[in-house]
Amino acid sequence: MGSNNTRHVVPNKNGGWDSKKGGAKKASKHFETKKEAEDYSRDLSRKQKTELVIHRKDGTIQRKDSHGNDPFPPRG
């Protein structure tokens, strides 16, 4: 999946959390809590059928959730 097909929940260096489209330099929206950023980003990701990438406070990836065009769909 290309970077345009992702939505990221990332920590903001000034505190709080941001929702960013993959490859974007600026956040789409800022939140005080990670949960708020996740909820907003998950909703957008479902509507846009993109992959949601949730990061930890240190910036590493915590988990990924695919909401469309999964390159490895389960069989059966």
Q: Give the helices and strands as they follow along the chain.
A: EEEHEE
Distance between the termini: 23 Å
Query: What number of structural domains do the residues give?
Result: 1
The strand count comes to 5
Poorly predicted residue ranges: none
Helical stretch tally = 1
Main beta sheet, described? 5 strands, mixed
How much helical structure, as a percent, in the residues?
10-25%
Classify the beta-strand content into a percent band: 25-35%
What is the radius of gyration computed over CA atoms, rounded to a whole number of angstroms? 12 Å
* Broad structural category: alpha+beta
Spatial strand order of the main sheet:
3-2-1-4-5
- Averaged pLDDT: 90
Q: What is the 3D shape?
A: globular
What's the structural blueprint in terms of helices and strands?
Blueprint: E1 6-11, E2 17-21, E3 29-31, H1 34-48, E4 51-55, E5 61-66
Parallel strand pairs: 1-4
Antiparallel strand pairs: 1-2, 2-3, 4-5
Can you describe this structure?
There is one protein chain. The protein has 76 residues and is of the alpha+beta class. It has one domain (3-59). The chain has 1 helix and 5 strands, in the order βββαββ. Strands 3-2-1-4-5 form a 5-stranded mixed sheet, with helices on one face. β2 (17-21) and β3 form a beta hairpin. The chain is globular, with a radius of gyration of 12 Å. The model has no long low-confidence stretch (mean pLDDT 90).
